[in-house]
Write a structure and sequence with these properties.
311 residues; alpha+beta; endopeptidase fold (from Nostoc punctiforme); 6-stranded antiparallel beta sheet; 10 strands; disordered C terminus
Length: 311
Amino acid sequence: MRGMDRALYLLQRRVVDIMADLLTKPRRVYEQRIPNDLAALKSQLKPGDVILVEGDQRISQVIRYLTQSSWSHAAIYIGDELRRFNVQVADALLEQHTTEARHLIIEATAEEGVVCAPVTKYINHNIRICRPRNLRRDDLERMLRELVAQLGWAYNTRHIVELGRYFFPVTLIPARFRRTALRHGGDATRQVICTTMLARAFGNIGFPIIPRVKLDEIDAQHTWVGRLLGRNGSRQRALYEPEDPTVITPRDFDLSPYFDVVKFNHLANGRFDYRRIEWVTQAAATPAPPTANDEREARESDQGRVEPSAA
């Protein structure tokens, strides 16, 4: 019986490896709509920022289908904070990436699990920066300590199997099953997916992403000022339901009212003027100045042309 169990385990691992290899292959066509300015990106990023990525792998396409969103991956920016929590890993990354090791992210990928990488990894991708509003420094440190402790953890392979089942048009999948496919991010203690890892870190410090909020009327304290102003003695309070981190997707950080979208590239300096944009149609309509070769060909054409005789 043990031999059969081991054979089934090895077969399962083989299937997962094949699916992982298939789903993590890059797509043949990827369009970066706006080129990223690396200097502007680095100048705008702060530790704790969530970076959303439109991935270029097949698995990215599946996640985009299931979430009906452009974003398929999420990482958290830590800058040069790694040295405060793990000097050994920080030194290794400094030797490998030199100065780029001062601008690091933590992410969970299907190929490598939980790793640190330079933010330049996604410079040729479509990305968005989402900044948690009013995040306290002590809470940020708690988050970073938790995330750094997870370096080396494995990616949840069950998640790959679930996504592999949905590698066909999303319109054929009932909406309730799309969410189920993305739910398997935390069954095992040391296996994660990218958004589950981040959602847990934010949840552990009480920072909301997309919670359910219920407004509840409560009795207010009666004061002589309130009675004078004719107030009814009640007020509303917001009750937040804890989120399930296993169903958080990259899109949720984008939609969250508790995260601000940070503009960078040519919008970062605040000097953007739409009236100075050079549109492609205008550039095409403006004739280019003649070159020396054009002028020479024009003269040769004039010399070889025969003028018609006068009647």
